[in-house]
């Protein structure tokens, strides 16, 4: 038994802390590679998280990042993104961004060129245009096809409740249903296959922390819906005195618990990254046992971990790691609990 345990430990030498560190959600290998090469070229940790997320926006990672994915109830793709500097605690974020592909770039511009933190909707588009970003249609044949199919299926599934006509059978427009009732079993329309937000943490050689996220949100969302990704402390958090964290999953639920902030704060108080991630997920699980979500955590010495909530469709959560031990982006997996 002791030998077996020893062998297992020897097989996991790559789980060691080393700096610099790039870690991101899901199997987005090129994103990890882009962030790593940005660091190799002398980029800052902020440059690295920005290039990593921008790479996913370009590649339309899993259809859930960038243009042409997750059409809303009107068929439009809208983007949410944020970036955080853990040295200064500056944040730049955009929500419900329309017709601009490089959402994390616009988030960085909010941080660099304004005193604000968060700019949303059509006004974020105008801001982006003024800052030199190109404005273009985010629809693709695929997003149009997803939208048409949804219309043909009587707008199923959707995120409406307590409205008339019955949202489980019909398209809108909807009106509040006079008598307010609560379904015994919330329908949980969240489809894990279409919610693979990129969240990335980069820790520099001196322990500087940056984090960023980018997503096109939830498929068939109600127009104007903004998820957890661009919300500091929810989608991601970075603090160079403690560590960084980033989330993926059902943002509508996760943002109520600020899991990224919580995990970083736990690491500040001495928790190991894996434990911090797990505790933050447990906090949500208590109220929503079947929620879909995962968290990555990294501390300032390059220790890292991840956790996810076990549910149908998610028994393991994949994430990418690059550090001087792995040298290349390496896929790792954590068992959900
Ligand atoms: C999208 O659809 C149009 C019209 O059917 C077609 O002409 C075009 O080639 C398609 N584009 C791609 C990238 O498939
Ligand atoms: C960071 O995490 C690693 C791995 O869990 C741990 O060994 C190390 O002590 C942690 N560093 C700090 C500063 O807590």
User: What is the count of structural domains?
Assistant: 1
Helices, by number, come to: 9
CATH architecture: 4-Layer Sandwich
pLDDT averaged over residues: 93
Order of helices and strands: HEHHEEHEHHEEEEEEHHHEEEE
Stretches where pLDDT falls below 50 for ≥5 residues? none
**How much β-strand is present in the residues?**
15-25%
The largest pleated sheet is described as: 8 strands, mixed
N-to-C span: 24 Å
Strand order of the largest sheet: 4-3-2-8-7-1-13-14
Site (Cleavage): 196-197
Family: Belongs to the Ntn-hydrolase family.
Enzyme class: hydrolase
GO molecular function: N4-(beta-N-acetylglucosaminyl)-L-asparaginase activity; peptidase activity
Structure in words:
This is N(4)-(Beta-N-acetylglucosaminyl)-L-asparaginase. It comes from Phoxinus phoxinus. Pfam families: Asparaginase_2 (PF01112). It catalyses: N(4)-(beta-N-acetyl-D-glucosaminyl)-L-asparagine + H2O = N-acetyl-beta-D-glucosaminylamine + L-aspartate + H(+). The active site is at residue 197. This protein is α+β, with helices and mostly antiparallel strands and 337 residues long. The protein has a single domain (19-139, 189-335), classed as Glutamine Phosphoribosylpyrophosphate, subunit 1, domain 1, CATH 3.60.20. It is 29% helix and 23% strand. It contains 9 helices and 14 strands. The chain has helices spanning 2-11, 29-40, 45-59, 103-113, 121-130, 141-152, 251-254, 259-268, 273-285, and strands spanning 21-25, 78-85, 90-98, 118-120, 163-164, 175-176, 198-203, 209-215, 236-239, 243-249, 293-299, 304-308, 316-322, 330-335. An 8-stranded mixed sheet has the order 4-3-2-8-7-1-13-14. The chain has a 4-stranded antiparallel sheet with strand order 9-10-11-12, with helices on one face. Helix 4 (103-113) links the parallel strand 3 and strand 4. Helix 3 (45-59) runs antiparallel to helix 4 (103-113) and helix 8 (259-268) crosses helix 9 (273-285). The longest helix has 15 residues, at 45-59. The two termini are 24 Å apart. The mean pLDDT is 93. Bound molecules: 2-acetamido-2-deoxy-beta-D-glucopyranose (2 copies). Residues 17, 272-273, 299-301, 303 line the site of one 2-acetamido-2-deoxy-beta-D-glucopyranose (NAG). One 2-acetamido-2-deoxy-beta-D-glucopyranose is lined by residues 17, 272-273, 299-301, 303.
């Amino acid at each position: 038994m002791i030998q077996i345990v020893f062998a297992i430990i020897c097989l996991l030498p790559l789980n060691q802390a080393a700096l610099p560190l790039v870690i991101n959600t899901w199997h987005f290998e090129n994103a990890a590679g882009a962030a790593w090469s940005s660091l190799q070229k002398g980029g800052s940790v902020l440059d690295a998280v920005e290039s990593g997320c921008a790479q996913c926006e370009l590649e339309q990672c899993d259809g859930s990042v960038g243009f042409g994915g997750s059409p809303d109830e009107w068929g439009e793709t809208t983007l949410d993104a944020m970036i955080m500097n853990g040295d200064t605690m500056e944040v730049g974020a955009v929500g419900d961004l329309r017709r601009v592909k490089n959402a994390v770039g616009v988030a960085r511009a909010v941080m660099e060129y304004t005193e604000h933190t968060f700019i949303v909707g059509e006004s974020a588009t105008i801001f982006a245009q003024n800052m030199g970003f190109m404005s273009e249609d985010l629809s693709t044949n695929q997003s149009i096809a997803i939208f048409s199919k949804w219309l043909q299926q009587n707008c199923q599934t959707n995120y409406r409740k307590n409205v008339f006509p019955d949202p489980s059978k019909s398209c809108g427009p909807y009106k509040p249903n006079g008598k307010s009732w609560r379904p015994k079993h919330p329908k949980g329309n969240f489809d894990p296959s279409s919610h693979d937000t990129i969240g990335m943490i980069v820790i520099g050689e001196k322990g500087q922390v940056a984090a960023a996220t980018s997503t096109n949100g939830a498929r068939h969302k109600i127009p104007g819906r903004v998820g957890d990704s661009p919300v500091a402390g929810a989608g991601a958090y970075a603090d160079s005195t403690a560590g960084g964290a980033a989330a993926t999953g059902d943002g509508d639920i996760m943002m109520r618990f600020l899991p990224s902030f919580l995990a970083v704060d736990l690491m500040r108080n001495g928790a190991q990254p894996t434990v911090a991630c797990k505790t933050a997920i447990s906090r949500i699980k208590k109220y929503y046992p079947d929620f879909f979500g995962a968290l990555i955590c990294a501390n300032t010495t390059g220790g890292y971990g991840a956790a996810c909530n076990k549910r149908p469709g998610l028994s393991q959560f994949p994430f990418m790691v690059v550090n001087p031990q792995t040298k290349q982006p390496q896929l790792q997996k954590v068992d959900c609990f």
